[in-house]
């Protein structure tokens, strides 16, 4: 395998089957060095499985690739030493204290100057006075933050974060993303899976996976265009009744409600325009750019079945 | 794949295990408490050679010979005289409802008949439903009667001393003339205790990582499987040492079990046995998905260890198929080794056969375990 200098991750044809069921199917992904790459998809679509294959925790049934230039099939040890992987489920030791957990992970990675590094991490987390508390007694959000700190303790070149901010409060999430951007600027590559749209928007690139197949991937800002959605923003009275009527229309692929506002989208722009003209009533219809949010609701709603060709 | 074993990571895993062991109070207490409890239960409570069995006497005659026999029975500690019955019906009833294990019937004119050399019969009726309960006592009867008669009758009359108890298997108990069960059972118990704790604790400790999900974090680090294994197993080897030490001290202090053989032979066999149990625990951990399962499978392996190893029942008395299964159990060989070393004064060359047998089993178990061990999550 030749080292890929441009990409931190480059995999092709990754396939994983669990007892005959294909969970990840012919998956390709290129993550440029230093990028923040968002990994999206509904529950059970295969995100965690894919990430595990990339860092050598699972052996793919087919496909190959490289992580930081090392073969994912044969050079797992080298990959593990340079990657920080944060698991979706809290997987530090609940019966060890916060400090003991950090210290243990640091020892696993032979972090130089370990003690001061651990103390520093504790201070960054704001957990210095609770260092002696058992990790299992932390609240859910704090567990996430501890796990995140633990997977970064050895200054990895690549971070694989599996839903790192699930259950984390908004302030901590913002801090987290500030930190991610800082790392990215310093050249660290970040692959992050998430279900939050506001986080997806912060990514440079996005891949969307459903039923183990990658549906689309590319520069985040271009995703809605790639899907080819046209959207109207509808405001006014009797929105609820209108919503029900619109759902029955062929030209409408999806209606998403945001408070008192409807976002009506369809793939056929002309048909949607005609509909907008026909439905004009007490409500106000405005043409708008389709955003990531609509794009993903559209993808997740399963309307994706007849979607093709846009995959990068 | 290069073989690199990092002492740093091994020590990290080791100290983590120790911290976890220390925090897991119940398991920790169990590891030391259970062996002591078992020792006490098996040593004192479970007695396959029971004594002080309730006995009734039906006396149709009385005299110095009768008294000598009865007191001989009582001092043998097998029999505990509860009272005198007046007729055959009462004795039978006591046997049937279990209030007595034995009824001793002294026939009429017994004293006179003995003196006349008529060889009268003393009838000892025994409750035969529990052969092990009465076996020892029944076996001891002829001897007791002989002794009693010999003491009472001297001179020419001694020839008349031939009562006819229709039972009489003389039990020859080498190395344990008193027939004390504890001497035999206590060394064997070491095999059972080590099997139980070593297998179960290792299996559970390894499976725990998988069940709690910490395995995912662990194998995402550069740690090598050998480092994890060594680091996880070493603390439990130490536990095995502590258990054995406590055990030997208690066996000596409470039951007076001697240690007559070579310490070296014991040491070799004992270390080998610990390793074989750890390997078995490791093998179980590759099969079990949860700590509960690991526990159950460990218990499952414990059953043949107790029943077929010769711990509970004499190995030689088992049917052929059971002996075949028993020979595949490491405890069978360790048990023989310990009994030989502790009770029979064996040295290393005497137990070489047992050592080799354990080694063979170890090879087979390790080979299977290594084939089954996965370094990934799938
Ligand atoms: N070890 C396993 N054995 C069998 N099936 C598995 C295993 N791991 C995952 N799966 C299955 O693979 C599919 C994909 O799971 P995966 O965890 O990768 O999804 P995900 O995209 O991470 O979902 P979520 O958003 O809920 O975290 C699921 O249907 C899951 O049941
Ligand atoms: Mg997942």
UniProtKB/TrEMBL annotation, chain A:
Pfam families recorded: ABC_tran
Classification via SUPFAM superfamilies: P-loop containing nucleoside triphosphate hydrolases
Domain ABC transporter as annotated: residue spans: 9-236
Example GO molecular function: ATP binding
Database matches in InterPro entries: AAA+_ATPase (IPR003593), ABC_transporter-like_ATP-bd (IPR003439), ABC_transporter-like_CS (IPR017871), P-loop_NTPase (IPR027417)
Keyword vocabulary terms for this entry: ATP-binding, Nucleotide-binding
UniProt-listed PANTHER family: ABC TRANSPORTER G FAMILY MEMBER 20 ISOFORM X1, ATP-BINDING CASSETTE, SUB-FAMILY H, MEMBER 1
Name of the protein this chain belongs to: ABC transporter ATP-binding protein
Organism: Primorskyibacter flagellatus
UniProtKB/TrEMBL annotation, chain B:
Domain called ABC transmembrane type-2: residue spans: 147-376
Record bears the keyword Zinc-finger: no
UniProt-annotated location(s): Cell membrane
PROSITE patterns with a match to the protein in the record: ABC_TM2
Membrane-crossing segments per the record: 26-46, 185-207, 233-255, 261-285, 297-317, 351-370
Record GO cellular component, one term: plasma membrane
Gene3D superfamilies assigned: abc type-2 transporter like domain
Top-level taxon in the UniProt lineage: Bacteria
Pfam families: ABC2_membrane_3 (PF12698)
UniProt keyword list: Cell membrane, Membrane, Transmembrane, Transmembrane helix, Transport
Keyword DNA repair listed: no
GO MF terms, alphabetically ordered: ABC-type transporter activity
Topology of this chain in the membrane: Multi-pass membrane protein
Family assignment from sequence similarity: Belongs to the ABC-2 integral membrane protein family.
PANTHER family the record matches: MEMBRANE COMPONENT OF ABC TRANSPORTER YHHJ-RELATED (PTHR30294), MULTIDRUG ABC TRANSPORTER PERMEASE YBHS-RELATED (PTHR30294:SF29)
Protein name: Mannose-1-phosphate guanyltransferase
Organism annotation: Primorskyibacter flagellatus
């Amino acid at each position: 395998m030749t080292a890929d200098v441009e990409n931190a991750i480059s995999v092709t044809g990754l396939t994983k089957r669990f007892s005959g069921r294909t969970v990840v199917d012919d998956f390709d992904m290129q993550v440029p060095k230093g990028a923040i790459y968002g990994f999206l998809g509904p529950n059970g679509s295969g995100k965690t499985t894919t990430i595990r294959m990339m860092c050598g925790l699972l052996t793919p049934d087919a496909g190959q690739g490289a992580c930081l230039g090392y073969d994912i099939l044969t050079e797992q040890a080298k990959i593990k030493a340079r990657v920080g992987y944060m698991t979706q489920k809290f997987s530090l030791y609940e019966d060890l204290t916060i400090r003991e957990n950090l210290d243990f992970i640091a020892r696993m990675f032979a972090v130089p100057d370990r003690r001061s590094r651990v103390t520093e991490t504790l201070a960054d987390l704001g957990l210095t006075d609770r260092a002696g508390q058992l990790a299992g007694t932390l609240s859910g959000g704090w567990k996430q933050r501890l796990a995140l700190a633990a997977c970064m303790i050895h200054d990895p070149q690549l971070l694989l974060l599996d839903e790192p901010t699930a259950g984390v409060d908004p302030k901590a999430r913002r801090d987290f993303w500030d930190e991610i951007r800082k790392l990215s600027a310093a050249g660290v590559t970040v692959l992050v899976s998430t279900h939050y749209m506001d986080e997806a928007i912060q990514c440079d690139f996005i891949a969307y996976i459903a039923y183990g197949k990658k549906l689309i991937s590319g520069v985040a800002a271009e995703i809605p265009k790639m899907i080819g959605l046209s959207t109207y923003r509808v405001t006014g009275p009797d929105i609820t009744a209108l919503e029900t009527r619109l759902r029955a229309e062929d030209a409408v692929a999806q209606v998403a409600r945001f408070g008192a506002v409807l976002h009506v989208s369809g793939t056929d722009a002309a048909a949607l325009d005609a509909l907008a003209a026909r439905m004009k009533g007490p409500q106000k219809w405005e043409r708008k750019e389709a955003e990531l949010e609509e794009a993903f609701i559209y993808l997740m709603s399963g309307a994706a079945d007849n979607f093709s060709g846009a995959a990068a | 794949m290069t073989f690199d074993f990092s002492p740093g990571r091994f020590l990290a895993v080791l100290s983590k295990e120790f911290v976890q062991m220390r925090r897991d109070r119940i398991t920790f207490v169990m590891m030391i408490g259970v062996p002591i409890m078992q020792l006490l239960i098996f040593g004192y409570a479970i007695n396959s050679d029971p004594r002080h069995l309730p006995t009734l006497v039906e006396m149709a005659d009385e005299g110095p010979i009768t008294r000598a026999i009865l007191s001989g029975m009582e001092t043998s500690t097998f029999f505990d005289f509860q009272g005198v019955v007046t007729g055959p019906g009462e004795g039978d009833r006591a046997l049937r409802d279990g209030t007595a294990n034995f009824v001793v019937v002294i026939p009429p004119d017994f004293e006179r008949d003995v003196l006349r050399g008529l060889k009268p019969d003393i009838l000892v009726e025994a409750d035969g439903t529990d052969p092990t309960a009465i076996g020892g006592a029944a076996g001891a009867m002829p001897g007791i009667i002989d002794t009693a008669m010999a003491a009472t009758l001297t001179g020419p009359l001694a020839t008349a001393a031939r009562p006819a108890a229709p039972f009489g298997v003389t039990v020859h108990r080498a190395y344990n003339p008193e027939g004390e069960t504890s001497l035999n059972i206590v060394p064997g118990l070491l095999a059972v205790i080590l099997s139980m704790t070593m297998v179960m604790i290792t299996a559970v400790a390894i499976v725990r990582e998988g069940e709690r999900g910490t395995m995912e974090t662990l194998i995402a680090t550069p740690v090598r499987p050998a480092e994890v294994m060594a680091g996880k197993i070493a603390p439990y080897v130490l536990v095995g040492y502590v258990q054995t030490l406590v055990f030997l001290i208690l066996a000596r202090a409470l039951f007076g079990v001697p240690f007559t053989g070579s310490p070296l032979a014991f040491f070799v066999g004992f270390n080998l046995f610990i390793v074989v149990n750890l390997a078995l625990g490791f093998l179980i951990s590759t099969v079990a998905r949860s700590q509960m399962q690991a526990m159950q499978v460990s218990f499952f392996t414990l059953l043949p260890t107790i029943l077929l190893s010769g711990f509970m029942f004499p190995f030689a008395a088992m049917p052929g198929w059971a002996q075949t299964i028993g020979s595949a159990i490491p405890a069978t060989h360790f048990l023989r080794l310990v009994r030989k070393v502790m009770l029979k004064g064996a040295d290393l060359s005497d137990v070489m056969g047992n050592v080799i047998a354990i080694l063979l089993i170890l090879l087979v178990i390790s080979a299977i375990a290594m084939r089954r061990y996965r370094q990934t999550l799938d």
